[in-house]
Amino acid sequence: MKTTKIFMMAALALTFAACSNDDNDIQNPAEQPAKAEGITITATLAPKTNGAATRAVTDNGDNKITATWAVNEHIAILYTVGSEKYMADARITGVDGSGAATISFIVVSGTADNTACTLVYPYSAAAKDYKSGVKDAATLLSAQDGTLNANLDVRVGAGTIRTTTPGLDVTTQPEAQFAIFKFTVKNADASATIDVKPLTVTIGTQNYVITPASATSTLFAALPAVSSQTVSFSATGSDSKTYTCSKDGVTFAAGKYYQSTLKMAFAATYTLLSAATTSDVGKVVCAAGHLHDAKTAVPTGCTAVGILGKVTDTGHGLILALQDATAQTWETINGWASTDTYASTTLKVLPNATARGSLTSYTTLGSTAVSNWAVAQKSDYDAIFTNLGSTTGDSDGKTYDDNVNAYITTGVGGTAINGYYWSATERGDLTAWLFKHNFWFSGSKSLSDIHVRPVLAF
User: Fold this and answer.
1) Sheet with strand 325-328: strands edge to edge
2) Integer distance in angstroms from the first to the last C-alpha of the chain?
3) What is the number of alpha carbons within 13 Å of residue 84 lying toward its C-beta?
4) 3-class SS at 195?
5) Alpha-carbon distance 217 to 215, whole Å?
6) In the chain, what's the furthest Cα-to-Cα distance?
7) Closest Cα partner for 240 from 200, 183, 195, 201?
8) I need a surface site. Which of 242, 343, 367, 382 has the fewest CB within 10 A?
9) Closest to 119 in 3D by CA, of 85, 94, 155, 144
């Protein structure tokens, strides 16, 4: 059908969401079952009924959508003769001053007097096989562009075809099948609008995607009627972030117009720590056990606690803390490991390798509240720094540098590693391995004021 439909609004001009691009699938009469000369039917349709302004949500005005018939639009007339199903192409030949439309179409010869029929507007909304009636809502609403377009003004009516005295008695005037929405997208506290492209509306298991030509905060959409259902929304903002919101117990009716402010919160995309792979090294770890993009702030409500520094082939690994732990005098601990394995003391034992999930803080290394955080072995620090792109170190291994500190400080507010740090690996009875930005060396276990940058194993 040609998109010559006219839409008007009291106090607000709209453009109706485009639904279908199959305007050219109007069936050629030659594709229908063979028929004789046929019978020409002329009939009148009443002016289109207009949905009242229904305030399902906040509505700042008493707005209505006014829809009118237009000359040369097409309506499908579905009817049956014997066991054969037919679809006639009814063309609007005129519209009078009241908005009533005159239609003309041909039915096959032999059509019985008072044959029941279904009217489907627009013609493209009828199923292509002209036998199964109206296309399903998912198909009709599969390609909306956020504007108000005649294709989404899908209407279905019923009538009786008279062939003795040719005419059509309309028993049910074509009624709108979908609700029409004007969505205004704002941030969570409604203090600012968000330009989005696209907006996805989810009802049950069905997604309806509205994709405007360019990102915008105002979109129009047609949706099937629902009663007391949960409706969810997700959108990609012009900032490339994902925004979401959900409404429970939603009810709206076909043929009605609604205005809805969507207060959408930023929903960060993340990987679960339990699904971490080597490709996730460098990502920010939040307290809920989520991995967020490296060198970027975690979403509001999340707490960044570390950087993923190591992942093994078995899916286990180490998280490097964003802050130093409280300084310790290690001679009071008396228990470095002589090899790169974890000893049994609280400070050097990392949690069970299968433990993943919520993370605790590390204000005082070794206390009950922070027993999950510990000092790593020399080989672990070496691997973490290597994985984070360190170029600084000596023959004993890599140490931290600006590349490493960039992960810790960029976006997440961590404190750069700076100074001397203990590892949990001893070199002898009286010494243990320490590292600085450019070398590893052994230091007396009696040294004080040596930093600790804890790690968490998972």
Assistant:
1) 325-328, 450-452, 421-426, 431-435, 440-444
2) 61
3) 14
4) coil
5) 7
6) 113
7) 195
8) 367
9) 155
What pTM, to 2 d.p., does this model score?
Answer: 0.56
Please provide residue 187's backbone torsions phi and psi, each rounded to the nearest 5 degrees: -75, 180
Look up residue 383 and give its two tokens: 């691997």
- Tens-of-pLDDT digits for all 458 residues of the chain? 333 333 332 222 222 222 223 333 333 433 444 444 699 999 999 998 755 433 332 333 445 667 789 999 999 999 999 999 999 999 999 999 999 999 999 999 999 999 999 999 999 999 877 666 889 999 999 889 998 776 678 999 999 999 999 999 999 999 999 998 999 999 988 999 999 999 999 999 999 999 999 999 999 999 999 999 999 999 989 887 889 999 999 999 998 888 899 999 877 667 788 788 999 999 998 877 888 899 988 877 678 889 999 988 877 788 898 988 765 444 344 445 433 333 333 333 333 322 333 344 443 333 323 336 777 788 889 999 999 999 999 999 999 999 999 999 999 989 999 999 988 787 877 788 899 999 999 988 777 778 888 888 77
Q: Which two tokens stand for residue 238?
A: 């012009």
Instruction: Indicate the residue type of 74.
Output: H
DSSP category for residue 377? P
Residue 251 amino acid letter = T
- Considering only CA atoms, which of 279, 285, 447 is closest in space to residue 373? 285
CB atoms within 10 A of CB 93: 12
Q: Chain-centre distance of CA 94, in angstroms?
A: 45
Distance separating alpha carbons of residues 423 and 379, to the nearest angstrom: 9
For 278, residues 6+ apart whose C-beta sits below 8 A from its C-beta are: 311
Question: What residue ranges do the domains of the chain occupy?
Answer: 6-178, 179-266, 271-457
Q: What angle do CA 40, 44, 47 make, to 5 degrees?
A: 150
DSSP state of 287: T
Pairwise CA distance, residues 181 & 222, whole Å:
6
**328, HSE (Cβ side, Cα atoms, 13 Å):** 24
Q: Which residues contact 307 (CB under 8 A, 6 or more apart)?
A: 282, 283, 284, 285, 294, 319, 320, 322, 388, 407, 408, 414
Under 8 Å between Cβ of 300 and 223: no
Q: Which residue has the tokens 């030949």?
A: 93
**Fold classification of 179-266 (topology level):** Immunoglobulin-like (2.60.40)
Instruction: Please say whether the beta carbons of 25 and 89 come within 8 A.
Output: no
